[in-house]
Amino acid sequence: MPVTDIKQDLENLTLTVTADFAAPVERVWQIYADPRQLERVWGPPTYPATFVDHDLRPGGRVTYFMTGPNGEKFAGYWLVTAVDEPRSFAFDDGFADIDFNPNPDLPVAKNTYSFTPHGGGARATYLATYASAEALQQVLDMGMVEGATAAINQIDELLAS
């Protein structure tokens, strides 16, 4: 399993997931740069993702929806704020309605995904920062840790294919 550590820090308003992959940084980067590859790992296995827009450059927008086991759709968006290919990218990650309009009732995370060489492969650090402890607790209560872990743990299979 790639996920090696998860830290929830309500004081600093962060959720950090660390994962190690048996692939070079450039290969792991490709997963996030290619929406068709990203679809295979973004949602948990029972909530596969479909990416509609994918503009991974500063100022770009990424939109997607995940489809639940009963056909229900859950949409989200990224507003890309920084890209340092293949080392990192940052984005505001929010929930949306099915037309990709931001849902103001749900938290927005400021995310930074970074990739560094580690042990002959790559280490990914997924850092999400929230505006308040309540916002972080809300996504924790929604199952963010379990969902992110299940999604990230799918990456090994994609890397092996």
TrEMBL record:
Residue ranges annotated for the Activator of Hsp90 ATPase homologue 1/2-like C-terminal domain, each copy included: 22-159
Domain of life: Bacteria
UniProt cross-references to CDD domains, sorted A to Z: SRPBCC_CalC_Aha1-like
InterPro entries: ASHA1/2-like_C, START-like_dom_sf
A Pfam match: AHSA1
Family: Belongs to the AHA1 family.
Protein name (record): SRPBCC domain-containing protein
Organism annotation: Pilimelia columellifera subsp. columellifera
